[in-house]
Amino acid sequence: MKIVSVNVGLPREVSWQGKLVTSGTFKEPLDGPVMMRTLNLDGDGQSDLTVHGGASKAVYAYPSEHYDYWRAELPGVDLPWGMFGENFTTGGLIEEAVYIGDKFRIGETEVMVTEPRMPCYKLGIKFGRADIIKRFLASRRTGFYFAVAREGTVSAGDAAELVGREQHEISVADITRLYAFEKNDLKSLRRAIEVEALPENWKGYFRHQLDKQTS
């Protein structure tokens, strides 16, 4: 398991449907080490902090293995590392096998997996096509967020070493599945809200789902 590419970029203004929109999805690969802090990487930023960023979504990781799928789905589209707005393009870390609360040592840092990435309209801006949002979620190839437990420098090529696992029951893929595909899986919903590392907004959403189906 490793970091294939480290990608950063500050928010920029782009034209979308006749309006100027600020987006932080434009990332470029770095050649050398960069400092990773509690809220982001140096040289990186999020445009709308009401829905992006924060301690539980400090760093976004996306599996390099998914790029071949998207090259087949989107022929002719240039897909450099960082195209999905990810800070880390990873190798060997797939949503089905990465669990909420997993802790990894990467370079000098330690991070913890918190939640999958849910696409917003700005992914459509990045690709220049609105249909990518539904296709991204339907693919279940969401990537996931890290919270930063220990700051330090990271570089492309760094190993991602699993150093702690809170539980073996609820993976990143399970959260996406319960959110968008199998909302009536009451057993898994109950397990999900017991996962300490899952952010409270997800737990609240799943509690609401349970209340609707059991009241």
Can you summarize this structure?
With 215 residues, the chain is α+β, with helices and mostly antiparallel strands.
Protein architecture, described:
With about 220 residues, the chain is α+β, with helices and mostly antiparallel strands. The protein is built from six helices and twelve strands. The strands form three sheets. The protein has an eight-stranded mixed sheet. Strands 2-3 form a two-stranded antiparallel ribbon. A two-stranded antiparallel sheet has the order 5-11. A hairpin with a 2-residue loop joins strand 2 and strand 3. The longest helix is centred in the C-terminal third of the chain and has 15 residues.
Question: What would the keywords be for this entry?
Answer:
25% helix, two-stranded antiparallel sheet, 215 residues, alpha+beta
